[in-house]
Design a protein that fits this description.
The chain has 497 residues and is α/β, with parallel strands linked by helices. It has two domains: 283 residues, Rossmann fold (3-Layer(aba) Sandwich); 201 residues, N-(1-d-carboxylethyl)-l-norvaline Dehydrogenase, domain 2 (Orthogonal Bundle), CATH 1.10.1040.10. It has 20 helices and 14 strands. It has a six-stranded parallel β-sheet with strand order 6-3-2-7-8-9, with helices on both faces. Helix 6 crosses helix 7 and helix 16 packs across helix 19. The longest helix is centred in the middle third of the chain and has 25 residues. It is globular, with a radius of gyration of 23 Å.
């Protein structure tokens, strides 16, 4: 059931028109909001998560001095800014309940979006503003330039090298932050918290490593200042938020709203954060945020089970032409594979949490993945596999090897991904470029037909896994099977043995 506005025809979303909508909307005076957070990467997830939590506080007339200013460095960010600016930075959220109920809400915690320029000056100046006390990021796993071997910043990445050589004209997010922090230092401004909202284990530490890794190569004094004046809390974020397409745009119009960038999301949210904010923070605990010293355990469970589970399902689903995660799980072979890999080769490496065992968490994510209302595409979930497999899958492989435990299912998962990177489905239809490293992945994947061991030479993904012949042998067995008897029969063979 869709909770609709009473408007007879769709109305443009704007401050001026807010009074015309009778769905949930800001009760607070948005003109009274002052900025406190600069967020980099204003995609759907951010607006369904951090922005929503802050909005809930503002509904209580609290944290009005923590308004969000959006920002970014990509063409996508430029387009997002233009669309959001037209609607006064308001966003329509639509919660998709498995029962079919669709609860709608307009959120208003974002108040501005800095211009997106090639030199990043507007972004740098915004971070340097003394009113900003938190700079938060949702730049995806691949945006951290992580070295597959060390798990740290790849200081030799071309874009990072460029920022170090040209610190006054940074092109990356991290280079821009470093320059902005230098301005704050020179101006005598107070401390600032840098908050990662990305799916990375120890995401705060990864962010700190990235910023300090650049700063140490530019200005040692600045690097010391950052260590003394900035904090980097680890956090775990969770909410399934599909991309916005024609379905979502049509849905919001049915509500009675013209919103160019609405957001749909599942009926579940979680945010677990270290309480390590050196310049204050909103009282997010009042609206459901968990502040905990066990963030890493929550993050580890989520990344290894939910995020890894997404990759397990999506790669097989893509090869079989099953467009959404819920449809992929209707395939008995994929469901069996997902359950077996998770229970036998992932859960053994996951520590139980006080409030949720790994087996109960598996059931929770299975129910969430199966939500027929979400229509989360396998293409979205499979995007940037080169980053996601290295972060979500490879740690469990390494643990299995180290502990001399089974990894045959995980080897199958990697074989399915390699097969997907060949760019052809089982029905011979084409799989389009879906990874920043697609050309490299596709080149290696095509070569696998004659030399399957070549796949593990992709150090950015596998690190030192190329040194383990036993794992590679199991991978070759599965890849050969995929080539000879196909995806369905190979998955069935795994599930039955």
């Amino acid at each position: 059931m869709l909770n609709k506005s009473k408007n007879s025809f769709p109305i443009d979303l704007s401050n001026h028109n807010l009074s015309k909508f009778d769905i949930l909307k800001p009760k607070y005076d948005r003109s009274k909001i002052s900025p406190g957070i600069l967020h980099i990467g204003v995609g759907n997830f951010h607006r369904a998560h951090l922005s929503w939590y802050l909005h809930r506080l503002m509904q209580k007339n609290k944290s009005m001095d923590w308004g969000i200013i959006g920002s970014g460095v990509l063409n996508y960010d430029y387009q997002m800014r233009e669309k959001l600016k037209k609607q006064d930075y308001l966003t329509t959220l639509i919660e998709l309940d498995p029962s079919g109920n669709k609860n709608c809400e307009i959120i208003g915690s974002m108040i501005d979006y800095v211009p997106v320029k090639k030199n990043n000056d507007p972004l740098i100046n915004a971070i340097a503003d003394s009113n900003i006390r938190i700079v938060s990021l949702t730049v995806t796993e691949g945006g951290y330039y992580i070295d597959g071997r060390s798990g740290l910043l790849n200081i030799n990445h071309d874009e990072i090298i460029r920022d170090i050589k040209h610190p006054k004209e940074p092109q990356t997010v991290f280079g821009a932050i470093v320059k902005a922090l230098g301005i704050r230092k020179d101006n005598g401004y107070g401390p600032i918290t840098c908050l990662s909202c990305d799916n990375l284990i120890k995401n705060g530490e990864k962010l700190k490593q990235a910023i300090l890794g650049i700063a140490q190569n530019i200005d040692k004094e600045l690097s010391t200042w950052i260590e003394d004046n900035c904090t980097f809390p680890n956090s775990m974020v969770d909410c399934i938020v599909p991309r916005t397409g024609e379905r979502e745009l049509s849905l919001v119009k049915k509500i009675g709203i013209i919103d160019e960038v609405p957001v749909v999301h599942e009926n579940f949210r979680q945010w677990v954060v270290e309480d390590n904010f050196c310049a204050g923070r909103p009282q997010w605990e009042e609206v459901g945020v968990q502040f905990s010293s066990q963030v890493q355990q929550y993050e580890d469970q989520k990344i290894r089970m939910l995020n890894a589970g997404h990759q397990i399902i999506a790669n097989a689903g893509e090869l079989l032409g099953l467009n959404t995660i819920d449809k992929a799980l209707e395939h008995k072979g994929i469901l069996s594979m997902f359950e077996k890999v998770t229970k036998e080769e992932i859960i053994p490496h996951v520590d139980p949490l006080p409030d949720l065992s790994p087996s109960d968490y598996y059931q929770l994510i299975l129910n969430r993945f199966s939500n027929p209302e979400i229509k989360d595409t396998v293409r979205r979930v499979a995007f940037d596999g080169s980053s996601r497999h290295s972060i979500f899958i490879v740690p469990s492989i390494n643990d299995s090897i180290e502990k001399d435990m089974s990894y045959k299912g995980l080897a199958l998962v990697e074989a399915l991904w390699a097969k997907m990177c060949q760019g052809v489905r089982e029905d011979k239809s084409k799989i389009e470029n879906n990874d920043p490293m697609w050309d490299t992945l596709n080149t290696y994947a095509v070569r696998l037909k004659t030399n399957p061991l070549k796949w593990f030479e992709i150090k950015e993904v596998y690190g030192n896994l190329n040194d383990n012949q036993s794992f590679k042998d199991v991978f070759v067995k599965w890849f050969t099977s995929l080539e000879e008897i196909g995806v369905e029969k190979t998955i069935e063979e795994y599930s039955l043995n």
